[in-house]
Write a structure and sequence with these properties.
The structure is a homodimer of 484-residue chains. Chain A has 484 residues and is an alpha+beta fold. Chain A folds into three domains: 12-271, Bira Bifunctional Protein, Domain 2 (BirA Bifunctional Protein, domain 2), CATH 3.30.930; 286-382, Anticodon-binding domain (Rossmann fold, 3-Layer(aba) Sandwich), CATH 3.40.50; 402-481, Translation Initiation Factor IF3 (2-Layer Sandwich), CATH 3.30.110. Chain A is built from 14 helices and 23 strands. Chain A has helices at residues 12-22, 39-58, 72-75, 79-85, 111-121, 166-186, 233-237, 262-271, 299-315, 329-339, 349-354, 375-400, 408-414, 438-448; strands at residues 26-28, 35-37, 62-63, 69-71, 90-95, 98-106, 130-139, 153-163, 193-196, 208-215, 221-231, 241-243, 249-251, 253-260, 288-292, 320-322, 343-347, 356-361, 367-371, 402-404, 429-434, 451-456, 476-481. In chain A, strands 3-7-8-14-11-10-9-22-23-21-20 form an eleven-stranded mixed sheet, with helices on both faces. A five-stranded mixed sheet of chain A has the order 16-15-17-18-19, with helices on both faces. In chain A, helix 13 (408-414) links the parallel strand 20 and strand 21 (429-434). The radius of gyration of chain A is 25 Å and the shape is globular. At the A-B interface, strand 2, helix 2, strand 3, strand 4 and strand 5 of A face strand 2, helix 2, strand 3, strand 4 and strand 5 of B. Strand 5 (90-95) of chain A pairs antiparallel with strand 5 (90-95) of chain B, so a sheet runs across the interface.
Chain lengths: 484, 484
């Protein structure tokens, strides 16, 4: 049997790390805070990157690549931006054997270097919009790190668009939030809440930040993607003006938006169980593992049987692997469950005699007996069902752990237990009215570590009532939670 | 008309830069030596990356991702390696607001960080081989840079494999050289010479380096990819031993291999002309541009005609764009020629009346009249022909400019003119016997800047004779050239 991992109910954090390490998704790096993404982890990132890239292109975006190094002076041009990122910067002071005249920052995000080039490329409304994205590594020096979820270097995409009007830029910000929401739900099986961030939680340099927020199995929130309306802040900082249709001059309007390798952590935390990784089938390196069950005297004939099944599934375009090693079936079952392969096909002499196989689902453990000729169709059906069910299961979990909270005592009671783990009756998402004030929001954070995750776009009707934190007249409905 | 670019015969270097900038492939960056890859340039990289990645996976390789930062002490573990890379390093000394205890190097290549992890992952022959690749950015601080060809930061892939035996590692080195050779020829239309580098030109830390070398239109060589047999050098430096099949302990055998965004420069330099970019069709963002030819009174009907052609080509899966702007046809022709779109379809009222269009090839300028119903088939045929012809044209150019050289006076005469430009009768590749000695090789370089590019694998028979540099008995046949 594969080495057991820590149970979620015993130690949720350790359970997560156990899966990452034992499913060989990632490993620690000799450089503090960095990570090594191993092939099985990178394959997940690659699949989600390709699908997201397809959706970006479908919405008219193009990829480009901007330099890793940014002059320190560029960051200082946008006051809030430099203030937000200063504590996290890695700085190159020497290169080519000499001390540099001006230190170079390793990009924590690329607004400044990109807008310095947009100044060269944008003269007139005819040059707009620019709808650019880049896939890149960024560095934000972190004191407390966790594989995938928070690392000093991570991989991400960052979209940076330039527009003629405020309305167009706001529409782009909202469009990309919606692209993320649909992608998270359809592809990653992550139900998310899309909405605007509070002032205190927005991106350094943005006018408005929007996010998608997911609930992990420990009921904490994880910010899975952000989309920022940057107004004219970076255009002003880098003097990017354009000739308008009316012949005047105006500053260009901007957005930026990104998701990162953190998503891989979100996927693991949302779907996996005490046996190991559970993956949405579309993300799995192998959709199906075939485990032949044999003794020495039946090995040859069983393998002949499973080889045909392997060939049929390959011909059907499935990502499939056959495990013909001499380890015991039980050992193999545990190993492939750890690795998160969505479907397992078991076939031994009895199945052979009946012309059938057993197919087991990774998420539910459910087993079905299937005639050989039906395997490709049944596999397609089960994979589609699993993709759908994982989303619904996660959504049901989130709904069961989201509560309407009316006032501060109720809020404190809801978050009374630190962490409020997977089996606890308290904790989760609190939904409540909010006055929009910074003070009550700050007090809640200080008292409980709970923050406003966002103000769901589809829940801003019927906001008459009192702020659930301070009792003042409400302006928004917000989602509160502890978060990663 | 689009702004003219410098002619190749007037100033080859300026011609190249003109194309890169005016076809909007790349731009200078505010950070010295770095570049910005613009969408039209990145699209070329993306297409070649995806195809190469497919070929890597087909040969059993998996992608992973290792950290950007490497502790300085790691580089020092392999003596030749650190000596080779020291002058080019960018160094992070401060991060998170504090001075680091140990400076971190921004990876110039990743052998050291990767082998430090291989130590954790390899215990037994059962763990071998590891066939990993990563797509990443690297930094090598350069004094003299040129867009795509030599930049301080560049994008590349680096394969790093670990093997049980010397023979297996050598076979992998040769396999990947062959993957590169076929890819360069089939996909990039770059005819290349595959062979071993001389001792003085090999990778810092390698036992043997192999390269593929292409000839640019100015007859200089460009190293388009390298594959290194690393022996046990890095395994010894990082103490990576494995239990052998016989129960003993041995050091692991290694290879590494890479190509970079430099390939985009090679493609531009090999195929383009004085009108601008010429691209192998498989690499082009748009395979076809349709230019409707109309006056105000015929615009609507011509556009109705070309819209149908556009739809038919899209339905056939072609990458096609229609330029319906009000600029003159001549202006549009020049503009799309500059951008390197392989085929142009022209259609005006006369073509409409005849139910035909004119299709022009970007590389030859050749025009054919084609009936509307035949367009998709003719387009497919012309694109395939162009892909084939570009390779053959480049191969013929290389052959015409490769000469057998018997002795040093002949060598000096061949390289008598500095640069020996595109129209010159001298210069190019010299093919000659070589004794293998470092001294005559060094003297040639000092006298002429000419180096040994490699020793072609398929030309090492019949090497009886005298070294063309010093007259000593020959051991190899080599290709000599000035190079990028």
């Amino acid at each position: 049997m594969a080495e057991k991992i820590t149970s979620r109910s015993v130690d949720y954090s350790q359970w997560y790390i156990d899966i990452v390490l034992k499913a060989k998704l990632a490993d620690y790096s000799p450089v503090k805070g960095s990570m090594v993404i191993r092939p099985r982890g990178y394959a997940i990132w690659e699949r989600l990157r390709d699908e997201l890239d397809r959706r970006f292109k479908e919405t008219g975006h193009q990829n480009a690549y901007f330099p890793l190094f940014i002059p320190m002076s560029f960051l200082k041009k946008e006051a809030e931006h430099v203030e937000g990122f200063s504590p996290e910067l890695a700085v190159v002071t020497h290169a080519g054997g000499e001390e540099l005249e001006e230190p170079l920052v390793v990009r924590p995000t690329s607004e400044t270097i990109i807008w310095s080039k947009y100044r060269d490329w944008i003269q007139s409304y005819r040059d707009l919009p620019l709808l650019y994205n880049q896939w890149a590594n960024v560095v934000r020096w972190e004191k407390r790190t966790r594989l995938f979820l928070r690392t000093s270097e991570f991989l991400w995409q960052e979209g940076h668009t330039a527009h003629e009007t405020r309305a167009e830029a706001v529409a782009e910000t909202e469009l990309m939030l919606e692209v993320y929401r649909k992608f998270a739900e359809e592809y990653l099986c992550l139900p998310v809440i899309a909405g605007k961030k509070s002032e205190s939680e927005k991106f350094a340099g943005a006018v408005d930040t929007y996010s998608i927020e997911a609930m992990m199995q420990d009921k904490k929130a994880l910010q899975a993607g952000t989309s920022h309306f940057l107004g004219q802040n970076f255009a002003k900082a880098f003097d990017v003006q354009y000739q308008t249709r009316e012949g005047g001059l105006d500053y260009v309007w901007a957005t930026s938006w990104g998701v990162s390798t953190r998503l891989v952590g979100a996927i693991i935390m949302t779907h996996s169980d005490d046996k190991g990784l559970v993956l949405p089938p579309v993300l799995a390196q192998e959709e199906v593992v075939i485990v032949p069950i044999f003794k020495t005297d039946t090995k040859a004939e069983v393998l002949a049987y499973t080889d045909k099944i392997l060939a049929a599934l390959k011909a059907a375009g499935r990502r499939v692997v056959l495990d013909a090693d001499d380890n015991s079936p039980g050992w193999k079952f545990a190993e492939w469950e750890m690795r998160g392969v969505p479907l397992r096909i078991e076939a031994g002499p009895k199945d052979m005699a009946a012309g059938t196989v057993v197919i087991a689902r990774r998420d539910t453990g459910e087993k079905v007996v299937v005639a050989v000729a039906e395997i490709p169709a049944k596999v397609a059906e089960l994979l589609a069902a699993m993709q759908k069910d994982l989303l619904e299961k996660a959504r049901a979990f989130r709904e069961a752990n989201t509560h309407d909270i009316a006032d501060y005592p109720a809020m404190l009671a809801f978050y009374s237990k630190e962490g409020a783990g997977i089996d606890s009756a308290t904790g989760g998402f609190a939904r409540g009215l909010w006055c929009g004030g910074r003070e009550c929001e700050a007090k809640l954070k200080a008292d409980t570590k709970v923050t406003i995750r966002n103000m769901p776009a589809d829940q801003q009707q019927d906001i008459n009532g009192a702020c659930c934190l301070c009792g003042a007249p409400a302006k928004h409905r917000a989602i509160f939670a502890r978060s990663y």
